[in-house]
Amino acid sequence: AGDRVPALTARALHATYGGFKALDGVDLHVPPARITAVVGPNGAGKSTLFHCLAGTLHATQGDIHYGDRNITHLPAHTRTRLGIARTFQQLAVFPSLTVAENVRVGAEQGHITDPTAVARALRLLGLTPLSNTPAADLPTGTLRRVELARALAGSPRVLLLDEPAAGLDTAEITALARVLKALAADGTALLVVEHDLDLVADLADVVHVMTAGRVIASGPPDHVLDTLGAQETPV
Ligand code: ADP
Ligand code: MG
Asked: Which UniProt keywords apply (predicted)?
């Protein structure tokens, strides 16, 4: 916690792949100390929104602010330095490195260089006993934790998670939810793109529903997810 965490705000974001409009004017606010969720069917543009926020894809229109600062044109690594960390839907762990080495990469790329951050991230994700295990030897659920620990090792103030529960079992999802709630309680701004609506209902303060590159509904999970259920929208 400590210093104030700036909010991440997107306004009227548009993004295209070739001629295809993947984002068609998205507004999104990701405030500190809250868990904000984005749900929606496959192809809705959730990952595209995520790439625009992280800086791996540049929006064709619209802007992104981090506190007072316009970060729309900043490259991904600069956003990471400013405190915006992410994980990947397709895992991006280095298989030849050990768990601790993977997490150290995150510390080096991150917002604050804190020598205790690697050990703290490993402990928070229950990875301390696996510190010296090569990532190649580990199952998906554990690799998701390595990926999250790597993002946390840079002491981020905004954390972007694309489908963090994909491939996890029930016990792992429960443990993940506990970690994410603790991070939000500590002041971190979290954005979670997630298919698991039970997890979203448990975690999120606000849910945004996307379809066809737009946000079509926003609100607290009990309200928004009930609306979805009533329409039997596949999510
Ligand atoms: P979601 O994460 O909600 O499933 P995406 O953001 O991945 O959706 O994709 C949104 C739309 O953009 C989809 O129609 C998808 O096929 C298309 N798309 C995504 N990535 C690319 C790409 N690299 N090139 C072309 N089209 C893409
Ligand atoms: Mg996606």
From this structure: ATP-binding, Cell membrane, Membrane, Nucleotide-binding, Transmembrane, Transmembrane helix, Transport
